[in-house]
């Protein structure tokens, strides 16, 4: 079964600084990869996803992530943080779902991004 | 606009009560999911459904059941609520149930129900 590791439960940056949120997954077989964001008191919203093709994926709000097969990583970056980016970010990976033929998402434990003025 | 709604944002129940959490999606999606979210544990899948009346257990189904009588509605049932079921419950839906095509589908989440069991 897949597992997802997000390094750092909290990341603090200053407004305008680079944002880097780390995500590593366990499988040697390239899965589908996702980043979701959760703003306070809201559900999760898709930021971006990697399925096939170009390994650099661009998402909403200026975020992007790069799939690196050799490192089993899918780190999320944004060149310049904005106060409105303060939220919790979840990395997720697809995983075969027992004998159903379907696949489910396995989520990391989340990283809370704090942005200071 | 994509919409997943959950019946309550906040719910307080007593130990032993039967609790119903309702989720409705208006996107004609095949798949629907129930997760619980706990600090430090991320999201964990409780149950999912890929069609009306069809369901599959997720990673933590113990103490829960589900019902999907109509395509747009997916209910999570706590038969006898316990304090360790105090949590945030998130419902999600996605378009397709067909294998690999389904797994790349975006899951759309509701706002969540924060359940407290006293």
Please describe what this structure looks like.
- The complex is a heterodimer of chains A (117) and B (118).
- By secondary structure, chain A is an all-beta fold.
- Chain A has strands spanning 4-5, 10-14, 19-21, 24-25, 33-38, 44-50, 56-58, 64-68, 73-78, 87-96, 103-107, 111-116.
- In chain A, the strands form three sheets. In chain A, strands 2, 5, 6, 10, 11 and 12 form a six-stranded mixed sheet that branches. Chain A has a four-stranded antiparallel sheet with strand order 3-9-8-7, with no helix packed on it. Chain A has a two-stranded antiparallel ribbon with strand order 1-4.
- Chain A is globular, with a radius of gyration of 14 Å.
- Chain B is mainly beta and 118 residues long.
- Chain B is built from one helix and eleven strands.
- In chain B, the strands form two sheets. In chain B, strands 2, 4, 5, 6, 9, 10 and 11 form a seven-stranded mixed sheet that branches. In chain B, strands 1-3-8-7 form a four-stranded antiparallel sheet, with no helix packed on it.
- The A-B interface holds A 9, 32, 36, 41-46, 49, 51, 90, 94, 97-98, 100-105, 107-110 and B 4, 35, 40-45, 48, 50, 56, 58, 90, 92, 97, 99-100, 102-104, 106-112.
Give a quick precis of the structure.
Helices cover 0% and strands 51% of the residues of chain A. With 117 residues, chain A is mainly β. Chain A is globular and about 50 Å long.
């Amino acid at each position: 079964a897949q597992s997802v590791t997000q390094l750092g439960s909290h990341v603090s940056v200053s407004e305008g600084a680079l944002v880097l949120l780390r995500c590593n997954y366990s499988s040697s077989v390239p899965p589908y990869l996702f980043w979701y964001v959760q703003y306070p008191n809201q559900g999760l919203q898709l930021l971006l996803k990697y399925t096939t093709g170009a390994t650099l994926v661009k998402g909403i709000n200026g975020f992007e992530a790069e799939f690196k097969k050799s490192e089993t990583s899918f780190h999320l970056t944004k060149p310049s943080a904005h106060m409105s980016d303060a939220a919790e970010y979840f990395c997720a990976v697809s995983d075969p779902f027992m004998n159903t033929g379907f696949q489910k998402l396995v989520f990391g434990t989340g990283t809370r991004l704090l942005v200071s003025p | 606009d994509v919409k997943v709604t959950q019946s309550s944002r906040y719910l307080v129940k007593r130990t032993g009560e039967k609790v119903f959490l309702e989720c409705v999606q208006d996107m004609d999606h095949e798949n629907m999911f129930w997760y619980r979210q706990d600090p430090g544990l991320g999201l964990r899948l409780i149950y999912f459904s890929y069609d009306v009346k069809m369901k599959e257990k997720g990673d933590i189904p113990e103490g829960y059941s589900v019902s999907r009588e109509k395509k747009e509605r997916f209910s999570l049932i706590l038969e006898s609520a316990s304090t360790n079921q105090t949590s945030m419950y998130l419902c999600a839906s996605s378009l397709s149930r067909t294998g690999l095509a389904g797994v790349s589908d975006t899951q759309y989440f509701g706002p969540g129900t924060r359940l407290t069991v006293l």
